[in-house]
Amino acid sequence: MEYKKVFQSVGFCGDLTAGQTMEARFTAVTARYVKFQVQNSGAAVDEIEVHGNPCVAGKVSITSETSGTGPMTCQNFASAPQCSAQSYDTSGNIAYAGNGFARPAVAKDVMAGFDNTHSAAHANDGKYGHGASWIGNSANSWVKIDLGCATQISSVSLGRDRTAGLADRGPGAVCVFVAASDVLAAGNADDDDAEYTLVFQSAGFSGVLAAAETLHARFTAITGRYVKVQVQNRGAAIDEIEVFGNPCLPAN
User: pLDDT, tens digit, for every residue of 98-155?
Assistant: First the structure.
């Protein structure tokens, strides 16, 4: 079932006189598509207006480079490119789980049968490559990262396989959300509509990342602790999510 009924005109007589506007108010809901259904054959509607939060495009750019800094290793599979993994310079990445603040990522789901080899924790483990990647199991799957503190965030980067081995499993459309609070757990999206703010949509992006390409999502700086990256395609693979902004500071 694709559509959910959010309004029914109980008590409305069915007639609009010249100059009148019918306003349908309901509890806020997050969606892309809106469907209006009218009862009468031949009914005329001069304009439909929808009010809510505007779409946020942000600035998207794609770069292509193999930017790993460590030796190429093999993990989770028998041979390259499936097993390829390579560390990179994590010094500017405030989402890296090894920086003393950020926690390992959690996800909506993981590709069936690969809970360990393609777990959500690979999305911020400090390694590029298919052997250290997360793969989702549904359309509009997501990864969430707790940065460890509330801080200012201004951009997010991600790739499919920046060891340049594979170019399949593209993300499709990418959305980035930021929240001040969340109960972080695998599969838990309770209250996301209220907690998370959409800061980026990948308008103009083809949805495909060639080998070694990185998608850079830039947006107006916002303060938050939790970052949620949602990808459109079922089975999309992300080798690493990097978040850039102000780093967390040790307590005095």
Answer: 999 999 999 999 999 998 899 999 999 999 999 999 999 999 999 999 999 999 999 9
Amino acid letter, residue 26 = F
CB 242, CB 184: distance < 8 Å = no
Structure tokens at 190: 């309770």
Question: 247 and 100 in contact (C-beta within 8 Å)?
Answer: no
Provide the token pair at 82: 């499936």
CATH number of 59-245: 2.60.120.260
Distances (CA, A) of 224 to 52, 153, 178, 195: 22, 7, 6, 10
Q: Where are the domains of the chain?
A: 59-245
Cα separation, 185 vs 176, whole angstroms: 18
Residue pair 222/71 in contact by the 8 Å Cβ criterion: no
Q: Report the predicted TM-score, pTM, of the whole model to 2 decimal places.
A: 0.78
Angle at alpha carbon of residue 52, lines to 46 and 53, rounded to 5°: 130
